[in-house]
Design goal:
By secondary structure, this protein is α+β, with helices and mostly antiparallel strands. The chain has 6 helices and 14 strands.
């Protein structure tokens, strides 16, 4: 009987401690104002330790810009992050948000005291000149004679950017891809833009994940360029969801 009561007591104590911890965390979270709320301060937060976002390996040739919102508390720590404006590429967005959470600041000052406040800043993903120079196949001419053209054996379907879908934006991107001797896409460029940056970026990202049988010249595989189009067209289901 004593053992049974002891077990019940331990369960109750554990539950109580857990509740206190959860309530404490919830209380801290409730102190974070909406990111849209304006708070006047005398001194804005100053970043003292910036964490550089990781550049996704499969996007080394693609540029991107992410606008991040970060809540900096009165200790100068980032408690929460949000996207102010997406790059249109999930990997860039996630990398920027992850890095933002690790940054350190001098907190904002209001009436002579530190205060928590939201800050917004831009994160740019720009390929380095070194990575571009070291990229194999940079000297391959855009047009050359081959005996057999590359044959796509795996096509990655591009994601329809959420922002473009919500705004009912359609378009066609002409992509120019450099297929290496092993059938891997070395580089992808926009040959003709859709007129929408989000669609262009999505098409390029998918192009880099395609796989091919390489071009053949004189019975040997050779790197060469291929050009093809990517259509972004809203489906009837998308139209139905929009109307609902």
């Amino acid at each position: 009987m004593k053992l049974f009561l002891k077990v019940i007591f331990l369960i109750v104590v554990s539950f109580a401690v857990s509740s206190l911890i959860n309530n404490s965390l919830l209380a801290d979270d409730e102190k974070i104002p909406s990111s849209d709320k304006f708070i006047a301060v005398e001194v804005m937060p100053e970043m003292i330790e910036e964490i550089t976002p990781d550049y996704p390996d499969n996007l080394k040739d693609i540029k991107g810009v992410v606008y991040v919102k970060a809540f900096v508390n009165k200790e100068g720590n980032v408690l929460k992050t949000e996207l102010a404006k997406s790059s249109g590429i999930k990997e860039f967005d996630s990398s920027a948000l992850d890095a933002a959470l690790k940054c350190k600041y001098k907190p904002a000052i209001q009436n002579g005291k530190p205060i928590g406040i939201w800050v917004t800043y831009k994160v740019e993903f720009v390929p380095s000149e070194d990575s571009m120079e070291e990229k194999p196949g940079k000297d391959v001419p855009e047009s050359q004679e081959v005996d057999i053209m590359p044959e796509m054996i795996y096509e990655k379907s591009p994601e329809y950017p959420i922002e473009a879908k919500e705004n009912e934006i359609e378009g066609t991107v002409w992509v120019k891809a450099l297929v290496g001797e092993e059938g891997i896409v070395i580089k992808a460029d926009v040959h003709k833009s859709s007129g929408n940056e989000l669609l262009d970026k999505s098409a390029l990202k998918a192009a880099l994940e395609g796989k091919y049988k390489p071009a053949i010249k004189d019975s040997k595989p050779i790197a060469t360029w291929v050009t093809y189009k990517v259509d972004f067209v809203l489906s009837k289901d998308d139209d139905k969801e929009k109307s609902e």
